[in-house]
Sequence to fold (1102 residues):
Amino acid sequence: MTEPTMKYSEAIEKFDPVMGLEVHVELGTKTKMFCGCSTEFGAEPNTQVCPVCLGLPGALPAVNHIGVESAIRIGLALNCEIATWCRFARKNYFYPDMPKNFQTSQYDEPIAFNGYLDVDIETEEGTKTFRVEIERAHMEEDTGKNTHLGGATGRIHGADYSLVDYNRAGIPLIEIVTKPIVGTGKYAPEVAKAYVSALREILRSLDVSDVKMEQGSMRCDVNLSLRPTPESPLGTRSETKNVNSLRSVERSVRYEVTRHAARLTAGQTVVQETRHWHEDTGVTTAGRPKSDADDYRYFPEPDLMPIAPSREWVEELRATLPENPAVRRTRLMTSWNLSELEMTNLMNAGVLELVEAAVNAGMSPDSARKWYTGELARVANERGVEVEEVGVGHDVLARIEALIADGGLNDKLARQVLEGVMAGEGSVDEVIAGRGLAVVSDDGPLLEAIDAALAADPEVAAKIASGKLQAAGAVVGAVMKATRGQADAARVRELLFEKLGVSE
Amino acid sequence: MSGISRDDVAHLAGLARISIPEDQLDHYAGQLDAILDAVAQISQANTEDVPAMSHPIPMTNVFREDVPSPSLGQADALAGAPAVEDARFRVPRILDQE
Amino acid sequence: MTELIRMNASDLVDAMNSGDVSSVEITQAHLDRIAAVDADVHAFLHVDAAGALSAAAEVDAKRSSGESQSVLAGVPLGLKDILATKGLPTTCGSKILENWIPPYDATVVSRLRQAGIPILGKTNMDEFAMGSSTEHSAFGPTHNPWDLERIPGGSGGGSSACLAAFEAPLAIGTDTGGSIRQPAAVTGTVGVKPTYGGVSRYGAVALASSLDQIGPCARTVLDTALLHSVIAGYDPMDSTSINAAVPAVVEAARRGDVQGMKIGIVREIGGEGFQAGVQARFDESVALLENLGAEIVEVSCPNFPLALAAYYLILPSECSSNLAKFDGIRFGLRVGDDGSKSVEQVMSETRAAGFGDEVIRRIILGTYALSAGYYDAYYGQAQKVRTMIAQDFTRAFEEVDVLISPTAPTTAFKIGEKLDDPMAMYLNDVATIPVNLAGLPGMSLPIGLADEDNLPVGLQIMAPAMADDRLYNVGAAIERELLAKWGAPLLSKAPELAGA
Fold:
């Protein structure tokens, strides 16, 4: 049952959108948030449970140190203030996938709050930076998994019964909530997508989660409301779940804007509810009516002691933060003197870290780029692996570049050397010796080869001597062939002209 | 401040997932009213500037290292379950979705 | 030799060490006693003869091979049915857990097992520890061995009754608002609620998480101290557990010297509502302490009159959340699953069928107190009053070393007498509740019989946090004096149980 919509351009002309984005991140810790059960994937049902995460009578929670550490690091990376003192709280409601029928979470005392994330979007006027303000980031735990059976579609409506697996119950989650995102105008979908994308990059760089939206380790809920003008009070919002990709983020915002606009224009009200996004059909469908009157009866969790991160600890953690990815990109681009396009190519090839490591080891940015986006990317592609898996370290490349620089190798030989290294024949020098790939540095064999080439083509000497210098190419080619590419072409040319008494 | 009606009891029982029979709602409402009357004196205390106490002992930062410990084992986990299917807890159909 | 069941734990240990008797014999003697009298007393919900005898045999084997064992190895014990015991039923006195067999041991239970203490069985209690008389057990009340028509106190009536009936020399209880101390008082036994965080709560089914503590019960102060030292101490599985040395309770129990101590009487505990005979015995204890060289000081704890109200807001709130897990999904009773009903309905029917009236009452009350719109006035306000009560204690302990009071306002009342009036029942806790709110340790020990009814009266001693040893020191001093005065332990005056 699809709802009427209107064209996006029309909708956005009439209304001002306000968004709120809630992202849940599954941390990649070894154990759950409140017990020592393993978090590894793929286990048989109900094998990674204990009295604590199964909610058995008498069990008590114990807080995962890395869970707290990750929460603080995420907060810092998002420019948040870190609480000097905060507690966990119980969010009380009944549901079969909730072992205790309350979720241990945080309520009015989140561990991180008042932050922001700057995102870039492409507008008609060029690249614009938009600041998304972050309300809070807090710690909580995931629920078990319900499988619904007996009904028609395998979804919950019409199911006869359900089966519950608590392996995922208690997995650490960090919930990141934005403040109302205002002032995006028609770029709301882009801002939403850029925010989620930038957030994902930061989380990945922090190494706290594998942030795979399709697998559910990063989940996004999109809240949207419309108002006639930016000065009007906020409208009624809808919440959209099941937004499992960046593409879905953008599309669902766009769709909800049009859906809200159609209703409001037709004189109807927007129902405050939770909706379900369908990527295949590109629409949302109604779910449960969302009630702000969901009375969760929050109170501070008595079984867990307050968390009071010392400022020393916070600064220690701040020092472990990687550079903000966007900032880092700009810095390297400038330092390596690359154009935006060259940088984009680097990014797309996924070799930024490799190039940076090579440059730090002394290679020139251009050579590093040449190899990683060139030959190595080609081989990786051929083999269907990531570039770093090709197994050629920057020290190998550095050696090859050094040899090319002082004439020990040329590009063609270098590729063969690389082949040998990848085949496991040894180091660069070992491969050169083993395969006999060194550029011939002794003039003797070169002169012999030149004589042989001239002898094979009697007219060419005269052509060159008479000034047709291009003819030298054929001779050089013949010498290269004769030496199996191991001659230094420039030196051959030099010797040839010397011999014929010609100058370039 | 006090004054729990039978409707209140019905609503609270719903929140607490306890199906109290109609004919007992008044009985509970009456008893709860009496208790609330007695505890209502709590409002007389002057608690301005008094911090709430959620934990009687002043400890903070109690953490557990991120090191796996043995789980129960599937058999023990399911041992007390009223209904099991496919090594999972079988529950009746869920009305209130997602 | 004195009949085995009449001996104290420390005497039993001496007898075993001198080879006079084995743990198996001692354990069997107590199992025989249970078989003889428990039909009348109903202290036990479940007796594990095989398990207890097996543990006893192991202790005997280790003793003959000279292996060193804990200080109470071989002395049998009754365990309140609120503690998870692997392989043994754990009902919490409730139908909703009638057939639950936990897959794990509570930490305290592990420590008891490691200490070689045979567990005779699980003792009766008010359902989910809510009550002061054990009448709210879904499996029938326990009867006070002093007068079988009377209550043994609650919620841990089974534990103290089994001691008073000589069914066990040791017992474990839990105390949230007086559930160890009040039963001790009305049965003439000793019971201690340790400092909050002093004993691990892992595996003790939670009633009010910020108030609950597990504690030792016995017939003498020394026995209680020995048991205290076995179960107390840091547990990483309990995030509220204190990481510090256990107070020197055994040494204090052997000392019993109050010379020069300052002992405070709380002005706000006592007076109206307190039975004359209870007050009389208390006054005598005060004089006794003075004679022993203590200085008695009256202190005021002006916020104590609000303690009952704060308690009956905090406890229901926390328990309404703690008891949400009893929903018929993963364990316990499930009712109404006929294939046509939704899980919401099955949950609701299960809980209505599995929970008794008092439990339902407190869950509803707690749900109300935490509700949006009421939180600040009720739960929030109660937590602030709690701070004020803790501050009263802090101020008092600047002046005195311990505080004393009668443990309970009355002696044991008749079964059925207060069942219809919840508030009347709650008033039993008026003296014991304050230490739970502040997380402080408290003890009750027997100080005589009330003149009007010849029923036991208890004295409550309260101490600062982690000063549990002061309880045992003062308690031991009083106990020694009274034993000298009576010539025999108070319990020797209890009527013989028919069938014994």
Q: What stands out?
A: Chain B has a mean pLDDT of 92.
